[in-house]
Amino acid sequence: MATLDRSAAEALDAADPIAFLRDRFALPDDLVYLDGNSLGARPVSAERRLAAAVRDEWGTGLIRSWNDAGWYTEPDRIAAGLAPLLGADADEVVVADSTSVNLFKLLVAGARLRPGRSAIVACEADFPTDLYIARAAAELLGLELRTVPGPDAVPAALDAGVAVLALCHVDFRSGAIADAAGLTAAAHAAGVLALWDLSHSTGALDVDLHGWGADLAVGCGYKYLNGGPGAPAYAVAARKHHAGLRTPLPGWFSHADPFAFDPGYTPAPGARRLACGTPPVLSLLGLAEGVASLQGATPEQLAAKARGLTALFVDLVDRYCQEVEIASPRDARRRGGQVALRHPWAYPLVQALAARGVIGDFRSPDLARFGFAPAYIRYVDVVAAVEILRAVLDGDDLSRPEFAVRQAVT
Ligand SMILES: Cc1ncc(COP(=O)(O)O)c(C=O)c1O
Q1: Where does the chain bind pyridoxal 5'-phosphate (predicted)?
Q2: What spacing in Å lies between the alpha carbon of 233 and ligand 1's midpoint?
Q3: What is the largest CA-CA distance in the chain?
């Protein structure tokens, strides 16, 4: 690859207004980690925080740590740190459970805010858990699940019979961004609530729930929020819906006063009414460090850097690796923080790259997917990744039998 590319990338890194974030992450020197859209990098601070929590707060403080170490109020602090990345207010955000569980709670609660309507609309191309959950919620409520092939087909599926539209903001395969403001407006024009899955957005894109007018949202804590494997997820409900919002899983942590041990149920104020049971404290602390590691960067800055990184990657792949096809939108404004490359040998390609220190992932049947987490990926990493991609394509790695062996997690 031309020396020119490397020096141009160095200049882009030098001018990057959020370059300071990278030092907050513990990344191996010899790795180009392009999978932060699946599992974010570890914040440096997480090791110390979790070690202290295990050793002192759990080991010595024991039950007292719920008060003394602030475990009980940790979800509220995380929600306050997360809210600006969502374009929401802190009391509209709750940190709890998994994305799948939060989606179920919000689909049911949302549909109940629109009594008399008979359908939920979801998208077939969305992450499968979203479809499974939407189907189950629809079955439970006796509603029809109306599916569309992609976001472009959504407006035609919206009418006065639809209660909730549930959509992923970013296509998990191609990285294509749906028009959240436009589709939310289309939903509202038909009296439909708009629920966004922001798993591939928050921490990488300019999410603006207030600006979009969105009603409800969910998303993962372990991707661009860097909360660690299996970190808790979040759920968001616009303030105008709080009064009527009833979770179908009203565990005691969703009660206004859990320690009143009241046999009667009074929901907590705000989005906290969407919590359920005791939070997984150690995972919660990982998420606290993950969200803290993004402080100081705005969603606009994160999105601009993601666009810059993916644009450089697309440009270099176009120039130097013409045997792979770009399977993501070419317009950077329509692309999330990831780029998918289509290649008939995509699985061995991902394995061969990993063996040479470039980590991406594989999505069946023929996509090699690369995430460019704007908080810690540098422009020079993009150049290095394409150099190694070129080397893999030039060698005989793709036919090596060990790279054809499918692992459980791809
Ligand atoms: C868009 C999207 N939604 C939901 C999930 C799954 O969420 P969880 O397994 O945390 O419930 C994923 C996982 O990758 C995802 O990409």
Answers
A1: 99-100, 127-130, 197, 200, 222, 252, 278
A2: 9
A3: 70
